[in-house]
Amino acid sequence: MSQPIDFYFDFxxxxxxxxxxxxxxxxxxxxxxxRWHSFMLGVxxxxxxxxxxxxxxxxxxxxxxxxxxxARKYGIPFNMPKDFPKITLAASRAYFSLSSxxxxxxxxxxxxxxxxxxxxxxxxxxxxxxxxxxxKVGLDPEELxxxxxxxxxxxxxxxxxxxxxxxxxxxxxxxxxxxxxxFWGADRVVxxxxxxxxxxx
Amino acid sequence: MSQPIDFYFDFxxxxxxxxxxxxxxxxxxxxxxxRWHSFMLGVxxxxxxxxxxxxxxxxxxxxxxxxxxxARKYGIPFNMPKDFPKITLAASRAYFSLSSxxxxxxxxxxxxxxxxxxxxxxxxxxxxxxxxxxxKVGLDPEELxxxxxxxxxxxxxxxxxxxxxxxxxxxxxxxxxxxxxxFWGADRVVxxxxxxxxxxx
Lengths: 201, 201
Hints:
Chain A is α+β, with helices and mostly antiparallel strands.
């Protein structure tokens, strides 16, 4: 059985949202599962002394052009949220808790959160909005709220983010690991495809 | 007559070196000229409050892996210089002066400087080394020295770098502009090819 593609994301990253759509057909083509991992870019940025792309004056302007261009290229619905970036702790903890039970509930939830933010411009920093999004993909609101409010989940998620940033050395999103090989950035999904096709170079 | 591809580089950028090799077959395929523009990343970084990739602990480690991987993928000779980055004012001024007379002398010189640094590990911050490199591609040493020592060239190059960073808003290298569309990064040479192939998206 082939290893899954590990896909690291933050709900507030436009490129992670775009890559989450781009990676699916690639994984399917090569009969790989995608194992989604939520983490907090803010923690990674602090360690590296970097910041969200959009706060840089010129790089930010280019990035906004490139978000739209990437979305057009791959036919992905995308509207840059006016309120950006967002702290997405409730959504991330909820995802983390759901993912401990596998992809079945977690991945549809993650996709719904991404769409709510990057298509519909909803406030995904608001726990109530997260609960509503969960309800739309069939998750019990009370169960979901309990998941992201639980001290146990909070502590376990914090430890997981630290592991991702400190031990796996992941400094940005999206970040993909394929058979041990790391790829950073939405544009590298094309190389993930080529890597799986050729066995690497 | 089609517009040339504008290619912005800094002699100290590994990705600019890699892209300088990658862009040539793409330009040839689409019957475009490449118009090379030297600028100083240091000036761009200051305005954006960014820094060379390799100084970031985790991003730096990934970048070094990716420089090698990109070189392998495209069959480009590459040895990461031990002494990195370099201030390359003499080479950049010399290139700028040569390029005012067209590509004929300037581009072979630029390629020779890139190779001297990223293949042979020579000290391209040393004006004497630059003069020697120039001699190897048939440039008169005295003429070259006069070019990079001239106050007129210094002032004109400074103004050109300011124009590139402030007015063209170029914040990193390599940076390519194709029929008005900007592309940043060596990995985007693939998209430059697709853009020229399809007319854009």
